[in-house]
Amino acid sequence: MTIKKIYLNCTMYGKFKSRQIDIAICMEMVICVFIKFYIVFFFYNRLLSLKLNLDSLMILKMTM
Questions:
Q1: What residue ranges are annotated as transmembrane (predicted)?
Q2: d(CA 24, CA 62)
Q3: Half-sphere exposure of 26 (CA within 13 A, CB side)
Q4: Which residues of 32-62 are buried (b: 16+ CB within 10 A; e: fewer)?
Q5: Torsions phi, psi of 28, nearest 5?
Q6: Residue extents of the structural domains in the chain
Q7: In 2-61, beta strands by DSSP E
């Protein structure tokens, strides 16, 4: 169960509404966004380097 679900369950029944939980949800979302950006950036760089390697191989092949 994620922090978000616990927060929604607790506030829905009016048991408590804590600022610490708000901060925890914000931190969880920030971490998720950073992980997503890292994954996208990593794969983009891998694809770009692969493309550059293929381009350089084609240039070498054409010059020979």
A1: 21-44
A2: 57
A3: 6
A4: eeeeeeeeeeeeeeeeeeeeeeeeeeeeeee
A5: -60, -45
A6: 3-63
A7: none
